[in-house]
Write a structure and sequence with these properties.
The chain is α+β, with helices and mostly antiparallel strands. The chain folds into three domains: 97 residues, Winged helix-like DNA-binding domain superfamily/Winged helix DNA-binding domain (Arc Repressor Mutant, subunit A), CATH 1.10.10.10; 137 residues, 3-Layer(aba) Sandwich (Rossmann fold), CATH 3.40.50; 114 residues, Alpha Horseshoe (Serine Threonine Protein Phosphatase 5, Tetratricopeptide repeat). Helices cover 50% and strands 14% of the residues. It contains 18 helices and 13 strands. The strands form three sheets. Strands 8, 9, 10, 11, 12 and 13 form a six-stranded mixed beta sheet that branches. Strands 1-2-3-4 form a four-stranded antiparallel beta sheet, with helices on one face. β3 and β4 form a beta hairpin. α14 runs antiparallel to α15 and α15 packs antiparallel against α16.
Length: 470
């Protein structure tokens, strides 16, 4: 076979080229030769000795084992196949490798159905009168409503397990509050939410993160990790606990591989509350190292340079997050007050400004003041957040929303939405607002639906996401 087609890839033996969606993918000679060998023997075990004989020859010296490992790693990178949860290239421990792909001989393209509208009024063609029939529209309307209802119920199940090629999905389960005081739940919930945001920006090409709304539904659940993984379609789970006493906090976290319930990594941290942000960065670094994520220089610098935070300001900030997530009139009033207190205590707290911007952005929907009063404040807070920290996806989203709804500045809105998506493609809210706050108003509905489908994959149990998609 000269051309192997599978998923969105083509491997062209004659051109010695790997293509994805018709575009060439950079891959070196030895990984390409090994990929061709694996495809020839697809579904079968290819031993390391066979690889050695085919690629390097029988009389070769040097660190061949390391060369094979490097070639396999480069193939996985080119195919966007995650080594933690591979879908294409599988390692057979102590033996070799097997590639499992469905090679297509041709690509089926659905034929278009032409719909010819009936001319209105007197322009309708002259045809014999048809027998009177009952008006079908009430039944059709009921059918449509039934389909919408069924889709709303089953969509979360249909959307699970469809991450982008080469991307492993992780869910951060709600951290347990071990303080003995249920009034401290918001502190553990805040830790969960901050870690979701932190992990979402680590290596967006290889790690996707289930959104907060869907994650929090498992708070206090008795389901085991295997069942949760099946329901959400994830390969990895992060679970942990928080115990706070005065100004000290103890955080434990463990990373679980869904396929066999293996504990891949675990760590405990005893720190001052002022170092809570550093704990979150340490957890993110630990996970990144364990599953071999590729961190950009910007992300590495951000993790290494995590500042301390005023404990009182952090307390107000996570109370603001808790109130914001209630999504009610009173909740937004409390959120705005809490974020404002955090900023008063720490004027350089970028995350608090971003939280305030988002609260101002959505509060009018719940009857708290008006967009005329609040959108300029959202714009001001978002701009300040970005000035302090340009890497906050939700700050760029708030700025984009404000610029489009306040000034109708569509070019700036698009630039800021795209910046938010670049920083954290796992943030379902960015996809949601980009869809209904920018693409749909400009009649780019096909793109808007595509963005909402991504949001539904990331947050399958979110009622607003399913509603906007509908």
């Amino acid at each position: 076979m000269d051309v192997y087609r599978f998923e969105s890839f083509e491997v062209d033996r004659g051109a010695f080229e790997l293509r994805r969606a018709g575009r060439p993918v950079a891959i070196e000679r030895i990984p390409m030769e090994l990929l061709l060998l694996l495809l020839e023997r697809r579904g079968q075990l290819v031993t390391r000795q066979e690889i050695l004989d085919r690629i390097w020859g029988k009389n070769v010296f040097g660190d061949v084992d390391n060369n094979i490992n490097t070639a396999i790693r480069k193939i996985r990178q080119a195919l966007r196949d995650n080594p933690v949860s591979p879908r294409l290239l599988h390692t057979v421990p102590g033996k070799g490798y097997r590639i499992s792909v469905l090679v297509l001989d041709s690509v089926m393209v659905p034929t278009a159905v032409e719909v010819v509208p009936t001319p209105p009024g007197d322009l309708a063609p002259s045809t014999p009168a048809a027998p009177a029939t009952p008006n079908p529209w009430p039944l059709r309307a009921l059918a449509v409503l039934a389909l919408v209802a069924i889709a709303f119920i089953v969509r979360p199940y249909l959307m699970r397990g469809v991450p982008a090629p080469g991307k492993a999905m992780i869910v951060v389960l709600p951290f347990q509050n071990l303080s003995g005081d249920v009034q401290q739940d918001y502190f553990a919930d805040g830790m969960t939410e901050e870690l979701i945001a932190q992990l979402g920006s680590l290596d967006p090409h290889h790690l996707g993160v289930i959104a907060r709304t869907s994650s929090m539904l498992y708070k206090g659940t008795h389901k085991d990790s295997a069942q949760i993984a099946r329901e959400l379609g994830v390969a990895l789970l992060l679970e942990g606990s928080v115990r706070r006493a005065n100004d000290r906090v103890r955080v434990t976290a463990q990373l679980i591989q869904a396929s066999d319930q293996t504990h891949l990594w675990a760590e405990s941290y005893d720190r001052d509350v002022s170092d809570i942000l550093k704990v979150q960065s340490d957890v993110a670094r630990g996970i990144a190292g364990k599953i071999q994520l590729t961190l950009s220089q910007q992300v590495r610098e951000s993790l290494a340079g995590t500042p301390s935070v005023d404990p009182a300001a952090y307390e107000d900030f996570i109370q603001g997050l808790h109130a914001y997530n209630i999504r009610s009139h009173a909740g937004f009033e409390h959120a705005i007050a809490a974020f404002s207190r955090a900023i008063a205590k720490d004027p350089n707290y970028a995350e608090a400004y971003a939280g305030l911007a988002n609260a101002y952005m959505l509060a009018p929907i719940f009857g708290v003041s008006t967009t005329v009063e609040f959108l300029p404040k959202a714009l001001e807070a978002a701009t300040r957040a970005i000035t302090l920290n340009d890497n906050l996806a939700n700050a760029h989203t708030a700025l984009a929303f404000s610029k489009s709804h306040l000034d109708y500045d569509w070019p700036t809105a698009e630039r800021e939405y795209r910046r938010g998506l670049e920083l954290n493609p796992s943030d379902a809210q960015v996809h949601l607002f980009y869809s209904n706050g920018y693409l749909s108003p400009l009649a780019r509905h096909v793109e808007a639906i595509a963005e909402m489908k991504i949001a539904a994959e990331l947050d399958p149990y979110s009622l607003p996401v399913q509603s906007f998609l509908g």
